[in-house]
Amino acid sequence: MPTIDILLPGFAIDTDQGHPAFCGVFLVRGPDTAGRSRTVLVDAAHVGRRPFLRDALAAHGLTAGDIDTVVLTHAHWDHVQNIDLFPHATLVVHRDERRYAHTPHADDWATPGWTGLLLEQLPVREVTDGEEIIPGVEVLALPGHSPGSIGVVVRTDRGRATVTGDALHFAYVARTRRNPLVFWDEDAATRSIDRVLAVSDVIYPGHDRPFRMTEAGDIDYLERFALTLTGLGPDTPGLSFADGTSRPTWTMPGVREQRALYEKNAAEIDRRISRVPRVLRPDLPGAGPARG
Amino acid sequence: MPTIDILLPGFAIDTDQGHPAFCGVFLVRGPDTAGRSRTVLVDAAHVGRRPFLRDALAAHGLTAGDIDTVVLTHAHWDHVQNIDLFPHATLVVHRDERRYAHTPHADDWATPGWTGLLLEQLPVREVTDGEEIIPGVEVLALPGHSPGSIGVVVRTDRGRATVTGDALHFAYVARTRRNPLVFWDEDAATRSIDRVLAVSDVIYPGHDRPFRMTEAGDIDYLERFALTLTGLGPDTPGLSFADGTSRPTWTMPGVREQRALYEKNAAEIDRRISRVPRVLRPDLPGAGPARG
């Protein structure tokens, strides 16, 4: 059976000066249909976690060159930026998400205009709901937070574990059933939360620790919180703390025009995809970003 | 005389799970040689500060479209990612830094392999030491932290204010005279710190509050620290705090081969620069990342 491990934990922490945006990064391993062992990364985090990601791989006896598949739950900045570390990987992304990333909306602060250039640095496999990545590891379409958000359902020996990306950022969302950040469709986002809850024994949120829902509807975390902050302390003058257990939903101002724009842009998206130069796998000895 | 304002404050905070990497972002304003008023942004921060950057511009009565020049102190991820917000701007960057960003070293975790694709989204003006951006605003070459790190010296009515980028991350570096993160040349980095100290009345560090050095050699901060953390508090189990006032220097493992590689890559760099498609200023009404 496939297994799931946390490579980098996700955090539900934030600040009033910028988003640290530490998403969870997961390692899924299991045999493919031919019995060969496969090593799948789910989400890649942003550059501020790059050295941590390399260290976490090493702690599992792996180098970046061992990753054969990188699945993106979605194309937001904090989930995608380290994909260039994995020169031997195929990028698995929902068709709608890949294409959206080439003409993101001006109001979409989580998807910079250059995101499409980044995604095309790896060979892309576009997927849709229900597709198998390896046996026992399947794509679960979870649109709403973004156009092509997906989850990854892993059939482990402890039950069905679902990596949700930001279809379910934080454990508390399993109770409020409202996505706190809607860049695409709020109703769809709520249906996606319900879908996660319906199919999962264990939930691996985008920015929180894995948890189960108890029969009473409470959150039962499976991991402890651990974080060290450097350069400040509880007595630092000017430092204050705010509760984060229920945030108001923010919906992108331009969300209503999103679907029509996306359809209108179809030809332009094809053109842009065809024009991106691949700068990875460099032919320059000793240089380049992506030596395994 | 030109003026300088803090748009986003820089922070000397860090974690053991990833770098928040909140650099300072500065607004420099003054007349050009023809007497026209100019609006210059120095550094652009990473995507996790994008909505905060827009809000800070609005608080100064500006939109992204009002920025005519974006100066990058260097091309590290946390300083460059929002340049696509400024479709009317010219990008000012040191020649060595721009070119390095097209073939970054595999060990350079702060400069992903796709950085060159990002930089070329704006028209680039390559600069070297001593060049004038507008009268009273000059480039100060500060290599060492990265190949083409620069400072920006602003001759204000309060004296010479220097935006240092990460040639001087934190105020304490003015006393240790050691750069804590060397991606290019440690000796050069120390000379650059000395150079900042020699020419500046007020120092605006890359990741700290502006300060003066007193006659006794102490640090006199000009701004108060202010930060709110959401989702945790001093009593959160598993949260700990560490001192950050003097960090050991980290030198990139591959730093010794850097200069030879950079020279060897010259032709490849030219080729890469010529091939980057510009995806900003989109011709699609209502879509695209960069409406002012």
TrEMBL record, chains A, B:
GO terms for molecular function: hydrolase activity; metal ion binding. InterPro entries: MBL_superfamily_lactonases, Metallo-B-lactamas, RibonucZ/Hydroxyglut_hydro. Its cofactor is Zn(2+). It comes from Streptomyces cadmiisoli. Keywords: Hydrolase, Metal-binding, Zinc. Residues 22-207 form the Metallo-beta-lactamase domain. This is Metallo-beta-lactamase domain-containing protein. Belongs to the metallo-beta-lactamase superfamily.
